[in-house]
Amino acid sequence: MNAPATPKFAAYVCSGCGIGDKLDVGALEKIAQKEGKMALVKSHDFLCSAAGVQMIRDDIANDGVTHLCIAACSRRAKAEAFSFPEAAVSRANLREGVIWVVAEGADHDEVRQEMAEDYVRMGCAEVKKMKVPAGNVKEASSKRILVVGGGMSGMTAALAAAEAGYEAVLVEKSGALGGFANKLWKRVPFASPYQEAQPVGAAELAAQVSAHAKIKVLLNSTVAETSGAPGRFAVKIAQESGSVSEEVCGAIVQATGFTPYDIAKLPELGGGQPNVVDQAGLEALARAADGGPIKRVDGKEIQSVVFVQCAGQRDATGRHLAYCSGHCCATSVKQATYFKDRNPEIETVVVYQDLRLPGMGEDFYRSAQDKGVVFTKGKASRVTGGDGCQVDFKDLILNEDASIGADLVVLATGQVPNAGVNLDEWDATVTAAESGDEAAKAKKIELQKISVLNLNYRQGPDMPQFKYGFADSHFICFPYETRRTGVYAAGPVRRPMDMLQATEDATGAALKAIQAVENAARGRAAHPRVGDLSYPIVRLEGCTQCKRCTVECPFGAIDEDEKRFPKFNEERCRRCGTCMGACPVRVISFENYSVDTVGSQIKAVNIPDEFEEKPRILILACENDAYPALDMAGIQRLSYSAFVRAIPVRCLGSVNTIWITDALNSGYDGVMMMGCKKGDNYQCHFVRGSEMAFYRMSKIDDTLKQLGLEPERVQTLEVAITDNTLVAKLINDYAEQINQMGLSPMKGFG
Amino acid sequence: MTTAMKYRNDFLGEVEKNVEEGHWVRMCMQCGVCAGSCPLGNAWAHPPQELFMMIRAGKREEVLSSDSMWMCTSCYNCIVRCPRKLPITHIMHGLANYAHRLGLAPKGQPTRETATLFWNNLIKKGRVNELTFSLALYFKDGFVQGIKNALNMQAVGLGLVKAKRLNPMELLGGHGVKDQAGFKAMIEKARQIEDRKKGFAK
């Protein structure tokens, strides 16, 4: 986009939707002209109408307007009408932000008008600091998709990508495709009537994958090193033979699956004793029987079998898996039917604590009951193996101790993800190794061996892990998104799941990978700011090499170059601005979002002197959740204090503390920062942004003390997108608190 | 009972074969809605859910000698609510009947005694003789208790006589269905069918 050499600024004030009735639009125009220094100022009684939009288009086309401030509704409303990609656009929120939230009546006319005037000043100030992002289109951008792991998830992902027209490279550690599915005799049913165990289908899928013209299958291979970014990953593939080849790809799907929890860790449940097997062990016996009577390893035909559910799972003691693996109930139901289908006289008992068959599994459960599988609610306490096995358990329905004898006992152990290196462990090891610890150096090499992706990112060789060691996933809102842009986790590596869920997951991840390569090729951001052409620009001459940006970037987008300067990988960047918020010398900015675009808005607000008794409260609100909640409060006409001035930020993580100190220095009486829920059940679109903001603000007390201000002058709050009622209450409570505290003593010095 | 026999299908199989609607027992998913829905649940030693589990656990004696299923008043709340659509009321009566026929049902259980008196009264002539049935009930716990019960009910009895709702002459034998022989043959045939179905055929 070729922006004209001389920028021309214009402001448009809408008087529709009641703005004209509640506000003095003429006065707003004057503000834009005189204080906002806009070259062209117009008003319209219906700005988002075809005529209104055409007026703006004409000004851009004929009058050379390059920068617009639209003073109308919220930036979240009428986004399509007010989309002018060739111009820089700011929005002054007069509708949701002023007339819908300030109390009705002539008593409030003055504060309402002041609020609107400030928003016009802020909109004009912001747009003056904005540039139209030029984008950063890459000439050579790969659209191939690398899939790591050749199990059901991996094969499905590769096939989905290939069928959509994208080349796929499938890397499998073992000598054959199929993964864990190869070990199964049959699988649970995926389709109506959900009654009979089905052929696995892994071999058929493997044949389809191997024969596909767009899929390159690399067996006996692992990923030795991954470098680059979406659109330009260079992946070194190590063959078992020792040779290393390089594959260039645009995105990566990690489908490395799971390993069954080690049965040997369950000696109290007979782990390690003869004729006590895990579910995989029973599959092996069933495969060996090949449709005939299932026999134990000692050759005895099995006449009775007991399945013990939740073996080493849902464990509260901390010794075993704390979670439920989700698939094991259905798997035991399936395995019980292996016996019943062949011979209804074989005794099959399932000892469960809570039988959970997600999806349509309840029909499968019913079918097994109908076949005579006995289900007993109980908690197994001890299993003894041997020729006559015995399961001791507490019958939870009859509330008594009981035991059952059987020829074979099957323990339903859980799924342990193959997620590679735990980055916390990695960080500690690398730190120790750098300080010369020999043991740590050896451990670092061991960790590199178990790494799946071997990313050469500054943040470590694999994607971050979440609860219980599962690979990263924004599991509340965007399940396939990880904190490594262009790398998507699919299948049981990301959370426990069954085969059907894994294949659906793989399809989703493949589609996300396709979006990633397409966005990368266009120089655009991936989720959640899809299509954003801006990217962080750093003024290296001012950089002090403090490394905060590289450490705090939630997405590992920033490496360090050989001179220890931050090296930005735009394709990995999600444009949250956490680096901008982190930078103590403020050398990082975006073309349309910078320390200046927000800072100038803060400074543009007219601060009344202390005798007017009108406080000013700055709100920095996350544009994803808190700002929509503020808008919703307006839509519902929940009135809140007219003393607040709200500025949307990309993420609370992008808030630079200079904004807070500037605001307080220039006489604001309080600052409210509104971000998303943080912690384990975070809702932050950028995962760690709001957590970083809370962390940074916990350290701001010293600064406030130096200024001679109370710590309550700055509030950091969690606001969800649904908190419209809460947000109005929070504002009003805080305004009251400021009222009690008294106005800031800083007024008049700014 | 040995460990090896527990939680096996032996007793469940017996129930499925011999108890009316017994084939449904395996389909119970132990949710407990029946137990929670039973208006007389507090009076039961074992709610239906537990009885089903006991059957699956092979507790033959305990189930068949239990008085729980005799407490059922056929309100049908459990049938309406069972998410697995088990005809629980019918299974309760089926179990009670089976236990009774095996002679394992608890002695002196009031429902059982009343039902037995009613049946014995009914099959004599094909009609229930209310006078002899009432007297049989009064005297089921002995002569002295019978006199006491009769005296207690004296006013009600006289009232019924005055209102022509009770004929004292019924004491002399009372009336029955017209075709006595046909009635007896029908009952005999029904008994044979039931015996065959429930495993009592000789």
UniProtKB/TrEMBL annotation, chain A:
Similarity comment: family membership: Belongs to the HdrA family.
Keywords tagged on the record: 4Fe-4S, FAD, Flavoprotein, Iron, Iron-sulfur, Metal-binding, Oxidoreductase
Protein name in the entry: Hydrogenase iron-sulfur subunit
Co-factor requirement: FAD
Source species, domain of life: Bacteria
GO terms, molecular function: 4 iron, 4 sulfur cluster binding; metal ion binding; oxidoreductase activity
Pfam families, sorted: FAD_oxidored, Fer4_9, FlpD
Position of the signal peptide: none
The 4Fe-4S ferredoxin-type domain, residue ranges: 534-563, 564-593
SUPFAM superfamilies (UniProt xref): 4Fe-4S ferredoxins (SSF54862), FAD/NAD(P)-binding domain (SSF51905)
UniProtKB/TrEMBL annotation, chain B:
Pfam families reported in the protein's UniProt record: Fer4_8 (PF13183)
Keyword Oxidoreductase: no
Occurrences of domain 4Fe-4S ferredoxin-type (ranges): 13-49
Gene3D superfamilies recorded: Alpha-helical ferredoxin
Domain of life: Bacteria
InterPro entries recorded: 4Fe4S_Fe-S-bd, 4Fe4S_Fe_S_CS, HdrC_iron-sulfur_subunit, Helical_ferredxn
Protein's UniProt keywords contain Iron: yes
Keywords: Iron, Iron-sulfur, Metal-binding
UniProt GO MF annotations: iron-sulfur cluster binding; metal ion binding
PROSITE patterns, per database record: 4FE4S_FER_1 (PS00198), 4FE4S_FER_2 (PS51379)
One CC-aspect GO term: plasma membrane
PANTHER family tied to this protein: HETERODISULFIDE REDUCTASE RELATED PROTEIN (PTHR43255:SF2), IRON-SULFUR-BINDING OXIDOREDUCTASE FADF-RELATED-RELATED (PTHR43255)
Protein name as annotated: 4Fe-4S dicluster domain-containing protein
Gene source species: Candidatus Desulfobacillus denitrificans
